[in-house]
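explain this.
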Amino acid sequence: MSTSRGELALGVQAGERRNMNQKILKLENLLRFHTICRQLHSLYQRRMLAQWRHVFSSAYLVWTAQLYPQPWQTHALIRTALSQHRLLVTKKEKKSQKSQLSSTKSKKEVEVWIGMTVEELARAMEKDIDCVYESLLNTAVDIDSLEAHSHLDEVWIKEVIKKSGMKLKWSKLKQDKVRENKDAVKRPQADPALLIPRSPVVTIMGHVDHGKTTLLDKLRKTQVAAMEAGGITQHIGAFLVSLPSGEKITFLDTPGHAAFSAMRARGAQVTDIIILVVAADDGVMKQTVESIQHAKDAQVPIVLAINKCDKAEADPEKVKKELLAYDVVCEDYGGDIQAVHVSALTGDNMMALAEATIALAEMLELKADPTGPVEGTVIESFTDKGRGPVTTAIIQRGTLRKGSILVAGKSWAKVRLMFDENDKVINEACPSMPVGIIGWRDFPSAGDEILEVESEPRAREVVHWRKYEQEQEKNKEDLELIEEKRKEHQEAHRKAREKYGTLHWKARSFIKYKIKKQQQPLKPKEKAGGDSNVLPIIIKGDVDGSVEAILNIMDTYDASHECELELVHSGVGDISENDVNLAETFHGVIYGFNVNAGNVIQQSAAKKGVKIKLHKIIYRLIEDLQEELSSRLPCIVEEHTIGSLISLKHHKDDISVIKTGMDCGLSLDEEKIEFKVGDDIVCYEEKEVLAKTSWDPGF
């Protein structure tokens, strides 16, 4: 509003100057016209005198006729005078317009942009910063709070340029030259004539401890369960199982815990069939429902494996009925989902489960194109000592061979070595086949699409393009964030101006001083005491899928009002000296999952007072994290009742209230209490109890 009034005032002043110039011009014209009239009047008088003298002398008349003009000559003179006057006025107006145009053209043009600072505006104007301040005097801008790096609104930029007598030019954002899309993409769908049958890719899903890992162990005849702690698979793996019938099934071993819901969902993206494992003695649990939802989202058919049927308390029919509530209808109840009663412990009906899976795969008519460039999906990536970055992948199209150039995410590889689930070196991998790939320049992420390209330069080109796209997207997000913060700052400044606008400048300065004093950084001792309710942590895991799963759990943390959980760093690999240094700097704790910390690292951590906590089971790590969070909370004081009053008497009368200074008789329900003269009677005791965090990770 203040800007509009200022612009209106300037407009009124300009209008008054125009009116004054017009009046002066009119006055000059009137003066010229008056002069011409006097000249014409003089001519008219001479004409009358000439006519009067004509009566007396004809000779004099001739002389007078020569001396004085005739009427027609007078009229011509008037016309000439008026024409000269109009020409004079027109020339002056044109000259005035030209001078105005020349003055407009002579104005300096200043290139400005939205959000520029005071210093940037002064530099663009080639003026001192004080010039900007002077231009903003007597405006709504708080000059006291305006610094050289302060951002100016659009209206104030215009005001400064206008008062400085310069011309405004908005700067167009510099647009980089549009780069050609260099990304690699999938090939068009293959000719049906080139497709051949392939093995199904099967994912085992289910609740923790429902026997999923033991079931896989029986199917592939290996001791996977013996190598995994707590009976829970720690990260995604891929295995090819050959059945006695000659059929092959590729299994994706996704974790059975709710903490790995994101990894299970990623596994379902490359899955043809899901085997849902439900314990007959436990029924449908939370993770069972999540697994069903993942299958529905991915539109993947289900084979139901009711496990632990060898137990006396097993009730398979109860499981089937519970699943009806989630639209999982078995064939016994008129649906199309096969249900197989199995016992992973004894091996009962394992072949029946495999046959049910193969039967469903035949109905799906799974086929793939084994020719042309390779297409696949990264299942997991990790670091192997002596091998570098390694990925487990499922090939979905083409045939992978040694020497192939692959791109996945923002990483690329020249395949140096391939191996199967038994660590046996193989020469090629066909569709539906799981394979370990060595030769990556960097870590691809689990779930990244693998594409084969023709050469290493082409692979670098694709990676550079993807990094460029990511950078552009990040820049866009940063600009949006900066603009949002700028608006928040302006709104806060506006509210502060409204709040302090009515105060005297001394009172306003005193309030600002107090605010700045409160914002001063804390001293080291004060900071150490103030950060007690913050827990900085560092997460290290064996594979990126495990780290991602832990971070997903941390995303559910909702108790920041009790203690802030701050992630300082996360990564793949063993605990390093850099991790210890980071933990020391931030006074944090290091959590390691399926990784090691050497003796040298542990000794260094002990000297620096850094805690290193290593775990093999995911939910044990989370429980440890909960305990660490709880230790940062103040103790809770609890009251424990020792006795309760059952009667109160004054003399022989039962009363409910006794006043100060009166004697009374008490009866307590606790017989073991002995009274002595001078004892104070207290009916409860207070105990300090360690507080527990209210964060519930969901298990």
